[in-house]
Amino acid sequence: MEHLEHSLIKPGKIEARVYQQVLATSILENKSSLLVIPTGLGKTNVAVLVIAHLLEKNPDSLTLFLAPTKPLCLQHVNTLKELMTISENEVGLLTGTTPIDSRSEIWKNSKVIVATPQTIERALASRRLTLDNVSLVIFDEAHRAVKNYAYTTIANEYMAQAKEPRILGLTASPGGTSEKINDVCRNLFIDNIEIRTKDDFDVRPYVQETDIEWVKVDLPEEFANIKNLLDELLRDKIQRLKELGYMKSTPYINKRDLLQIQGIIRHDINSFGRNKPEAFGGASAVASAMKIYHAIELLETQGISALNAYLERMKKEAYGRSSKSVKIIMADTRMVKAFGITAIMKQRGFEHPKLEKLRDIISEQFKNKPDSKVIVFTHFRDSATLVTNALSELQNVKPVRFVGQASRDKDKGLTQKQQGQIIKELKEGTHNLICSTSIGEEGLDLPSVDLVVFYESVPSEIRSIQRRGRTGRHSRGRVIMLMAKGTRDETYFWSSRAKEKKMIKTLNDMKKTGVSKIKQTSITSFFGTPAKKEEKPKVKIFADMRERNSGILQELIKKDMDVQLEQLKVGDFLITEEIAVERKELNDFVSSLIDGRLFSQVTELKENFDKPLIIVEGEGDIYSIRNVSPNAIRGAMSSLLLDYGIPIYVSKGIEDTAEILNVIARREQLDLKKEVRLRGEKRAMLLPENQQYIIEGLPGVGPTLAKQLLKHFGSVKAVITASERELLQAEGIGPQRAKEIKRVTDNIFIEN
Q: Could you tell me where the beta strands, DSSP code E, fall in 358-397?
């Protein structure tokens, strides 16, 4: 076996694999790349090759290596120290537990910094560090670079600050659709995709085959009896929702549909109260439907113990001060019968047939290969406990439960130290099987195992790929997927498989056609890089922090607008003292109508601004987005227009949204000479701004008049203590306004 020779890589440490060297070369030839290769084929090795080349070319360069969790950061630090010849002191670690007073020294003395993204984002926001001297930023588990995750902020700051930015994203599974992959690429400013699959000719010699088996089990007749009773109950509740106008006819209903309908009903109750009595009937029906749905889900995927425990809790609630829906469900003869069958099966020791099948699979595995290492993945913690206890009874099997850090009720999570100890014990043989929740799917340095078992299927192609990637790294691997026939297990399996195929095709297509580049001229710092003074007047717009990854800010900057990012109390964009804008993508707009969020937001808008505006962004039929009655959406939108008096502008996309914001801002600020309103923001203001903010609280006083009053009287105190006659001498103050101001400032406060 030949090994790579490089002055900055320790001899005999990295196998000389052609595809890794080709990938590294291509990444170095491009300024930003996304590397997608299966788990176990050396993403980190490729990253090390890139780092070594850049350091050899420029010894003073700095690489920032980001990873989502502290354990994964520690893993990368150890790998870099093991593979590279640079001093161990030149590999720095920055996480939330790193002392603040030592971070600057670590940054200054390191050639490679490994860090959690949240640590870097906070340091950038507080201006404790800059990225102008960083020659490369590596984003591990790059598929996380969506929405408001810290990766997106850091990428934008890096592009704004660095003289010659270079970005490398690493992932085994970026997402199943072109939209998801494009989101990652756009957020990380990536214009080059490097992809290898196990079938590529240069990778194939290093791939260990993985045998995938689908083991199906039949649900016992008793399960079917319980399910039929619960299904009948659920159909009644769904029919009731249809009769009340809260649901369209549909052959299938899922939990998300029920949650959205619940949001609509909650809004109707809050808005119309007793004037809409059907809403109260709907509330009871949807609450019952959700509880019944969850019971069916537990029966199908988890078994008798989980279902019995759930029904026991509902029975206890029914005798206590529970909601009406629980009392109605538990009094129904069908639920009474289902509960009775469940309790009897629990007493007789029935569990899900997958559990017994799993025991047989594990027994056979250790019988044929006593030194095996195995991972069993399951979605629920309760199932992880059940499986661990069941497998501990088997000969030669030494199982341990592996879960996340969060504690739930009496179930305590594992600390990072405990997680690390379990991984160490698995490597050393103290344990030979771990039963893991999703914590074991991504990032942590779990060793390659002989067998991976899916206790239940997962609908996510990313999670499915990550689970399978735990086997077949150094020798032939084996994956077994347990499925209960005719249940969600089968649905989820085919869903993840279709998504994975689509992902591979999409990636290959994108590799051929290329990724649309985002010009660096559209990038600006989100943390206050001073703008250059220009003679040409600019319009200003305040944008909320949550909009930093929407793409709109870049469009606004292209239009030569002065964009200032702040954590706004109200609205997404502030244009003048009167105008605030709430922006909603089409899906989110319908969802927020349904769950009532939008009405809380518009109430705040009306209270703080005279002319609020809602922009709905996206193309498509608004009535086909959700499984709800079109009239429910029409009613909610009518309420916005008629009850709240808020106009709704429909935008085709981010460019259209940016254009309408630009047009409004220029009209108001340049033509009508209006100012951006400071009230409603949470940012720390300078003294003059704080003074202006206080005076703006007086009746009939906006930003312009507040400034005039402060200039006329000289201080906040002088304004407040001025007599009505003195106020009348100030420009812009008439008799009525002066009288109202004195009424507010002089009257004794009496609490209502």
A: 374-377
Binned average pLDDT, 10 residues per bin, the chain of 752 residues: 88 90 92 86 91 92 92 88 93 88 90 93 80 94 85 89 91 76 87 82 77 85 90 92 80 77 80 77 89 90 86 83 77 92 90 91 91 87 86 90 72 76 84 82 64 79 63 70 83 75 73 51 48 57 77 77 77 87 85 74 80 86 71 79 84 88 89 66 58 81 80 91 90 87 85 54
What domains does the chain contain, in order, with CATH numbers? 18-206 (3.40.50.300), 210-217+351-500 (3.40.50.300), 221-347 (1.20.1320.20), 534-671 (3.40.50.10130), 687-746 (1.10.150.20)
pLDDT at 310: 87
Quick check: 206 and 71 in contact, CB under 8 A? no
CB atoms within 10 A of CB 126: 10
pLDDT at 703 (0 to 100) = 66
CA 238 to chain centre: 31
pLDDT of residue 534: 43
Angle (nearest 5°) at CA 120 between 193 and 582: 80
Token digits for 318? 């029914």
Helix (H, G, I), strand (E, B) or coil at 681: strand
Partners of 477 in the β-ladder: 210
Contact (Cβ atoms closer than 8 angstroms) between residue 230 and residue 292:
yes
Nearest to 43 by CA among 164, 146, 169, 222: 169
Closest listed residue to residue 622, CA positions, set 654, 581, 585? 585
How many residues are listed for the chain in this entry? 752
Strands 62-66 and 134-140: parallel
Give the sign of the dihedral formed by CA 706, CA 711, CA 717, CA 720. Answer: negative
Q: CA torsion, points 24, 25, 26, 30, in degrees to nearest 10?
A: 100
- Nearest CA-CA partner of 420 in 108, 55, 713, 74: 74
The CA distance from 363 to 60, in Å, is: 56
For the chain, what percentages of helix, strand and coil (3-state, to nearest 5) are there?
50, 15, 35
The crossing angle, in degrees rounded to 10, of helices 70-83 and 416-428 is: 50
Rounded alpha-carbon distances, angstroms, from residue 381 to 349, 384, 452: 20, 5, 18
**139 phi/psi in degrees, rounded to 5:** -110, 100
Of 703, 700, 650, the closest CA to residue 542 belongs to 703
User: C-alpha distances in angstroms, 390 versus 42, 166, 422, 606?
Assistant: 36, 50, 19, 59
DSSP β-ladder status, 451-454 and 477-484 = parallel
Q: Find how far residue 30's CA is from the centre of its chain.
A: 29
Residue 656: partners with Cβ closer than 8 Å, 6 or more residues away: 617
SS3 98: coil
Residue with tokens 């105008």: 579
Q: What is the pLDDT of residue 193?
A: 87
Residue 435: enclosing H or E segment and its boundaries? strand 433-436
Beta carbons of 438 and 467 less than 8 angstroms apart:
no
| Cα–Cα distance for residue pair 681/534, rounded to 1 Å | 26
Give the SS3 label for residue 275: helix
Amino acid sitting at position 254: N
Taking the model in full, what pTM does it have? 0.58
Is 433:453 a contact under the CB 8 Å cutoff?
A: no
CB–CB of 208/473 below 8 Å?
yes
CA–CA distance, 137 with 75 (Å, rounded to integer): 17
Q: How far apart are CA 151 and CA 165, in angstroms?
A: 15
* Residue for token pair 């990938």: 23
Q: What six digits make up the tokens of 139?
A: 């984003």
Contact at 8 Å (CB) between 146 and 180? Answer: yes
